[in-house]
Amino acid sequence: MTNQELVATLAKRLDWTQRQASDALESAVSVISSNLGEGNTINIQGFGQFETKKKGERISVNPVSKQRFLVPPKITPAFRPGQSIKDNLKKLEING
Fold first, then answer.
1. How far is the C-alpha of 93 from the C-alpha of 23, rounded, in Å?
2. Class of residue 92 by CB neighbours under 10 A (exposed 0-12, middle 13-18, buried 19+)
3. What does the pLDDT look like over 3-47, one tens digit per residue?
4. Cα 40 vs. chain centroid, distance in angstroms?
5. C-beta of residue 20 within 8 angstroms of C-beta of residue 10
6. How far apart are CA 75 and CA 91, in angstroms?
């Protein structure tokens, strides 16, 4: 599903214009992004949890030259789905 399709579906379900749905979606993404940038965790009940995880520094090897180099630590976003999403995915796997 593309962003445009998501906006159209939201607008139809909420009986909003596509502009209103687009603004609402953009605002939600902005709030999630800014909170993740501050290191906060966002929990949307029935959907899942957005959080940041710190990956430590590690040594990696270039497979061609066999040269070893240090990969610096970094912070990455992560999503853990809620139980209802997990249950829906299990149903898809069984019926698929």
1. 34
2. exposed
3. 999 999 999 999 999 999 999 999 999 999 999 999 999 999 989
4. 14
5. no
6. 33
**How does 61-80 read in b/e, with b if 16+ C-beta sit within 10 Å?**
eeeeeeeeeeeeeeeeeeee
Residue closest to 32 by CA, chosen among 18, 14, 48, 46: 48
pLDDT for the residue 27: 96
The pairing of strands 74-81 and 48-55 is: antiparallel
Domains present along the chain, CATH in parentheses: 3-95 (4.10.520.10)
Q: Which two tokens stand for residue 80?
A: 């853990």
Rounded Cα–Cα distance for residues 58 and 70 (Å): 6
